Amino acid sequence: MSKENILITGGAGFIGSELIRQLIKDQSKHVVNLDKLTYAGNLENLKSVEDKSNYTFAKGDICNNELLIELFEKYEITKVIHLAAESHVDRSISDPLLFVKTNLLGTASLLNAAKNYWDGNYENKLFYHISTDEVYGSLKMGKELFTESTSYDPRSPYSASKAGSDHLVRAFYHTYNFPVVISNCSNNYGPYQFPEKLIPLCINNIIKRKPLPIYGEGENIRDWLFVVDHAKAILTVLNKGQLGETYNIGGLNEWSNLDLVRVICKIMDEKLKRPVGDAEKSITFVKDRAGHDLRYAIDASKIKNELGWSPKYQFEEGISLTIDWYLNNQTWLSNVSSGDYQSYYKKQYG
Ligand code: NAD
Ligand code: DAU
Question: N or C: which end of the chain has fewer CB within 10 A?
Answer without folding.
Answer: N
